[in-house]
Design brief:
about 450 residues, disordered C terminus, three-stranded antiparallel β-sheet, 13 strands, four-stranded antiparallel β-sheet, alpha+beta, about 15% strand
Length: about 450
């Protein structure tokens, strides 16, 4: 039986461990594992060539204690190369990429130096300079008086006192962002900049609400209160140089405390009823007053028109009388006759009766021409019927019509016998009484 020694360098080569010659002097047969001593000597040669030693020479000797062999020391050129590489890597660590919407605040040994804009930037590497990214485009939001929903109230923040000593529950939202050049101020001027914005907004809201009455805050003045709070909070932040710009202050809900909500609702309803009645009264007044003013104006205009009409008629009558008087002075007879004829024409234009004034005895002959015409019409119709049938009634009708004709002829003959001579005023058809009146019209 053969025993194999693990420390034997010729183990596994098919050789006996009976030879006392060192294994490194024996050839390595093909197909066996490499000699560890030969590998170590080759590594030492290459390492020596790398560190600048020329020539092969003998490699490092194995120490007698069985440890690792000692390596040769590095050359100055290699050390310089390592230093240059390390410096380049250190300088390359100063390159950085600033994201869009952000800026990098650079500090040198803890002191602010400058701000880097978005893009590929470079600064001195750590520990000389350090940078901190700040998002200036982000819109930050926080709530005052509630959290998430209006039901989740924070009464210590929302309850405020108004000018008329009433308590209101105000819930509002504040939105803000950093200014373009406000990143250094945001980082270094205040310890907690976000909490500073919260405190400034709450302070401004309490101050503005304390100046206003309750009804103004609840109803008509929400927008005005929000604008004033934004301006006041911004002035506080600018005073402390925080670099923050408040974008919006929006009041979400304003109401009285829950303990007095029912009584407040009743008061609001009463106020609404009062406003409704006032509006109805104003509407009625707006309707009645213009109508009364219109009627008054119409009556005034009608009175003015009637006055102008009466005055015009009076002036026209006066002018006409003056013109007639002037013409009468020129030709009294012609003027009297013309006036008489015009008067008679006006009188008899709408009548069927004829009045004849006889010059003798002042007798007036009345000729009922309308009756005569009616009887003549009846007589003609009776003659027509008599010719058709020959009844006795037609004979009586004809006899009556002949009687009326005879009476008319007799009256005309009597009038012609009583007619004056052509030389007097009756020759012109003017009665004697009217002629005397026209000769002296102002005798009465």
């Amino acid at each position: 039986m053969k025993l194999f020694n693990l420390n034997d360098p010729g183990w596994g080569r098919g050789q006996q461990n009976q030879d006392n010659e060192p294994s490194n002097n024996k050839p390595n047969p093909a197909g066996g594992p490499p000699d560890l001593d030969e590998v170590w000597r080759d590594f030492n040669k290459r390492l020596s060539g790398l560190f600048g030693k020329r020539g092969g020479g003998r490699g490092p000797r194995m120490p007698s204690g069985g440890g690792l062999p000692s390596l040769p020391g590095p050359s100055p050129r290699f050390i310089l190369l390592l230093i240059i590489v390390a410096v380049l890597l250190w300088l390359a660590s100063g390159f950085m990429i600033v994201q869009e919407g952000q800026v990098a605040v650079v500090t040198r040994f803890g002191k602010y130096t400058h701000t880097l804009n978005p893009g590929l930037q470079w600064r001195l590497p750590y520990p000389i300079e350090n940078s901190q990214d700040v998002n200036i485009s982000q819109l930050r939001t926080f709530e005052v008086g509630f959290r998430g929903s209006s039901r989740n109230k924070v009464l210590s923040e929302s309850l405020m006192l108004t000018n008329d000593e009433n308590i209101v529950d105000v819930q509002f939202v504040v939105q803000y962002r950093l200014r373009a050049d406000g990143a250094p101020s945001y980082l270094f001027n205040t310890n907690q900049p976000d909490e500073s914005v919260r405190q400034a907004a709450e302070t401004g809201m309490r101050e503005i609400v304390g100046r206003k009455p309750m009804d103004f805050v609840l109803y008509s003045g929400r927008t005005e209160v929000a604008s004033e709070v934004q301006a006041l909070a911004q002035s506080i932040l600018d005073r402390y140089q925080t670099g923050i710009q408040i974008s919006t202050v929006a009041i979400q809900n304003v109401q009285p405390p829950e303990q007095v909500q029912a009584a407040f609702d009743d008061a609001v309803k009463a106020g609404q009823d009062r406003e409704r009645q006032i509006n109805e009264g104003n509407a009625y007044a707006s309707k009645v007053v213009p109508e009364a003013e219109g009627q008054s104006a119409r009556m005034i205009q009608e009175a003015e028109g009637y006055s102008a009409q009466v005055i015009g008629q009076a002036q026209g009558n006066t002018s006409r009388f003056d013109s007639v008087a002037a013409e009468y002075a020129k030709a009294p007879g012609i003027t009297r006759e013309r006036m008489y004829l015009e008067t008679m024409q006006d009188i008899f234009s709408d009548t069927a009766k004829v009045m004849i004034d006889a010059p003798v005895g002042n007798n007036m002959l009345y000729l009922p021409l309308d009756k005569i015409m009616q009887q003549a019409a009846h007589g003609s119709s009776a003659d027509t019927s008599a010719a058709a049938g020959g009844s006795p009634s037609s004979a009586s009708g004809s006899s009556s019509s002949s009687t009326v004709s005879t009476a008319g002829a007799a009256g005309a003959q009597a009038a012609s016998q009583r007619a004056p001579s052509p030389s007097g005023p009756a020759a012109r058809g003017v009665p004697s009484g009217l002629d005397s009146l026209m000769r002296s019209p102002y005798s009465n």
